Every structure is written in C-alpha cells, then in structure tokens.
Amino acid sequence: MPARVNPYLQFRGHAEEAMTFYQSVFGGDLNLMRFADMGGMGVPEAEQQQLMHSDLVVSDSIALMGADVPSTHPELDQYNVHLSLSGDDEAQLRGWFERLAEGGSIDVPLEKAPWGDHFGQVKDRYGVNWLVNIAGGGS
Length: 139
Description:
Elements: E1 8-11, H1 15-26, E2 29-34, E3 51-57, E4 63-68, E5 82-87, H2 90-101, E6 105-112, E7 118-123, E8 129-134
Parallel strand pairs: 1-4, 5-8
Antiparallel strand pairs: 2-3, 3-4, 6-7, 7-8
C-alpha cells in the first residue's frame, strides 16, 4: 500500500454519529473500536461506549479516522481543520457537497471560481470544514 494522509477527526461524545454520517455520504467500510473494547483505558465509566478509534475506508485514496476525546483530556479539543475534496467527477463531488451541507452551513456556494474550476466550502453538522473543488469548471 502506498503512503497516504488520513485525516483524524476528534469529537466530544458524538464520533460514532459523525462517522456513520460520513459513511452515508461517502460510502465505504466503517470500523468502530470503543474504549470498553480496549479495557477502558482510564476513561470514565459513562464514556466507555464512546469511540476510542474509528476508520472509514472509502477507497485506496480516501480514508477518514475519528475518535471521541474523553473528558479526562480537556486540553484536546477540535482543531480548526479544513478537509479538501477535489477531482473532476462533478456528480460525485456535487453530491458530497450537498450531503455534507445537510444540517450544516454553506460558507461558500459551489460556484465557478476565478481560477476556472467550481469551488465551494461547507461546514457540516459536526463543525468540520470541507472545501470542494471540481476541476475543469463543472457546469
């Protein structure tokens, strides 16, 4: 397997919901591992069923990972990260943009950009920022 970058998203108690949502958007195989599955790892009892790790493998080039940050780690909060989706499959990218916007907000409509492609930005219902660029201008 060639090297790749795997975005790792952190959540506060809703990682399973978020990762299941991303699976509904992108498809793929979702694997979940709970703190309880790993012997508890010092996480409070009320958080044992939260996700210690998850991975969503969509294709050889797309994989998302995510986990809940336990309350015992208040210093670890969500980072201000933007994930970028790009390519020339207009139908797929527009579909992903529209699905990610459900329950979220469109910060930049998916429209023709000055560089000739179609570009948009959406913040999904979990606060994750997505940049979508359709090469070649789209329609």
